[in-house]
Structure prediction request, 453 residues.
Amino acid sequence: MPMIHDTAIVLKRLDFSESSQILALFSKRHGRVRVIAKGARRSTKKRFSPGIDLLECGQAVISVRHARQEALATLTQWATSSSYSGLRDRLDRLNAAQYAADIVAGLTEDWDPHPQLHDALARTLAALSETDRPLFTLIAFQRSLLIEVGLSPRLDHCVACGRTPFGTRDIYFSSFEGGLLCRDCEPARVEKRLLKVLPAALIAEEIPRDADVAGVFDILHYHLSHLMGRTPAAGAFFEAILRRARSKDQRAR
Amino acid sequence: MSSDHLSSIEHLKKEFQKLPGIGARSAERMAFHVLRESKTEADALAAAIRAVKESVFHCRHCFNLTEQDPCPICEDPVRDRGELWVVEQPKDVWSLEATHLVRGLYHVLMGHIAPLDGVEPGDLTIDELVERVKAGDIREVVLATNPTIEGDGTALHIQSLLSDYDVRITRPARGLAVGSPLEYASVAMLEAAIRGRRDL
Prediction:
């Protein structure tokens, strides 16, 4: 029975019984792994840190019994290395962290390793637990994830005709097409959104301070929602930001 | 011997197996225990199960489980009506009551906000909580949700809703478990204890 030792972050957690939990872990060398942690809810079990919470990073020992994709693996040991306690001080940090975990869970496959994405998530959780501007940190992670899973949209030219620059004309974004559409190419596409954010703000290494940050987040959120086939769990704080960004968008039209 | 012809025993076993923490072997033991008991005992068990489903409901003020509305805690004239303890589940009220230290009233949220599981503020009794605070008698709201990511998120959300009202918002202390050696404390427990240390 192979045993895996790996660093992992808890993406999802479901209380399975009075004492056991089912967890979705994002491990560094094995990718997303679904495990059952028998007895994890009893604090007396010495092989688990007392209780395993969401968004914790820890050292996991996992027993894999069957053909990997077909069964839950068993978490036999868990030692928390970081709980990112600063996340719990502010709702925006907490919501941003949950959002980051949800998009990782939604866009990675079981047993498909992404060590760089794991490290990026760990860095993001650490940064979020201290930052006063979680939206900036979250946008950076949205972009890292899209690059890592190979689904980053093309934002430097029209994906249909290849033309650039766009000048002052309206620019559209299509998640299905994988990037920007110019005014001439957009009528033939059903799935698209008028872009209110300058492409430069979307691709800049560091988002300019005067950029419409909520608008950048909204476009990446739209793209991620399309890729995941559902809306990522934004939480109350980011839902309010998205509502404000969209109402501003509608007023501008 | 096959048990296929004993369908009523199998049925009872399956029903017991639905209970939390009860596996097939325990369910079988419980089913045979009921068989061994007298009919009076078995009827008493069935009556107790029926009674709990028919007579227990949620208090209209605090949403705790009760057999009378308002519940005895909400009706108790000795309780401090200025102190409101907010918990996730009715069983949390039982845990806090066991300390005999809580003198105030309760508000049961009936869960916690969990964006990853699709549980939103509207699914809980948060609106009713805000209405109770708006009524004006409450001077302190103790957010005693679980110290988990979801519990903390729920507490922060409620804090943001209540920040406009003239009410003190507190959270129970957290950190090391009393009676448990330091070596068994998790990183999270130690972090909370270190951050929340106080003068002796």
